[in-house]
From TrEMBL:
The keyword Metal-binding applies. It comes from Dryococelus australis. Keywords: Hydrolase, Metal-binding, Nuclease, Nucleus. Its cofactor is a divalent metal cation. It is found in: Nucleus. This is DDE Tnp4 domain-containing protein. Belongs to the HARBI1 family. Residues 110-261 form the DDE Tnp4 domain. The keyword Nucleus applies. InterPro entries: HARBI1-like, HARBI1_dom.
């Protein structure tokens, strides 16, 4: 992140993360708070490690970083996480998928990713996933150009893929037909065939010979979201570590990473 981008981000969150001085001590400045937060997101280093470079105690970092992440997400989400609201928006996404990945009438690629956390007190196996560790699930939808159009974080790791989708606002919007999805067949290159508009997700593990070509096309579109997760983890390495904090703070960390990614890409 260059200096100009940092200053722009600081101006966005300054009013939220500002703290008054007290008679006992001088408050940590907004600039230092933001620097510490970005260092944690980018490096994934522990609070004990960061205290040397930030000159802030681990206990205080445990408050500063989640608070700053909440501020970053709330200030930037409206501008950098715009969900499609019209048929024209969806058609533009479908056009990109056809041009870049040769799949018809695709409105997005969606998938979930486990974010590792410490076992929460009195939670039992609630957050324990099938891969053998405790986690929350990050659910994301992306367009053909690796840009996020929807994210949801916080569902416990035991939930299936279908269950994760049901926890999102998108699921409710599908149910009440409020997504303004174009009518089937309004955009297709196939003659005499009416295709519905769809979102692509995980493919079946076992397929027949006749399904292979179709699955190949689906995979080309679906790997966009997997690649986006890879790009995110390489940029914000905290997503590759076990986030040793309360699950409520984990959500703010993850959401801040994604909105910052979109800002940098823009």
């Amino acid at each position: 992140m260059d200096k100009a981008t940092f200053n722009t981000l600081l101006n966005h969150v300054r009013g939220i993360i500002y703290k008054n001085n007290t008679k006992l001590r001088e408050a940590i400045s907004e600039q230092k708070r933001l620097i510490a937060t970005l260092r944690f997101l980018v490096t994934g280093r522990s609070y004990e490690d960061l205290k040397f470079s930030c000159a802030i105690s681990p206990q205080l970092l445990g408050r500063i970083i989640p608070e700053t992440c909440v501020a970053v997400f709330e200030e930037l989400k409206t501008e950098y996480l715009k969900f499609p609201t019209s048929s024209a928006d969806w058609m533009n996404i479908a056009q990109d998928f056809k041009t870049l990945w040769q799949i018809e009438n695709c409105l997005g690629s969606m998938d979930g990713k486990f974010i590792e956390i410490n076992k929460q007190n009195d939670s039992g196996a609630y957050f324990y996933n099938y891969e053998g560790f405790f986690s929350v699930v990050l659910f994301a939808m992306v367009n053909a150009q690796y840009e996020l159009i929807y994210i949801h974080c916080g569902t416990n790791g035991r939930i299936s893929d279908g269950g994760i989708l049901q926890e999102t606002d998108v699921y409710d919007m599908f149910g009440n037909n409020s997504l303004n999805i174009p009518f089937p067949g309004s955009f297709t290159g196939c003659r005499n065939v009416t295709l519905p508009f769809t979102l692509v997700a995980k493919k079946k593990k076992t397929i027949s010979h006749d399904e292979k070509i179709f699955i190949y096309r689906i995979s080309r579109a679906r790997r966009v979201v997997e690649n986006t997760f890879g790009i995110m983890c390489s940029r914000f390495r905290c997503l590759l570590t076990c986030l040793g904090m309360h699950v409520g703070k984990v959500d703010s960390i993850v959401l801040a990473c994604f909105v910052l990614h979109k800002k940098e890409k823009s």
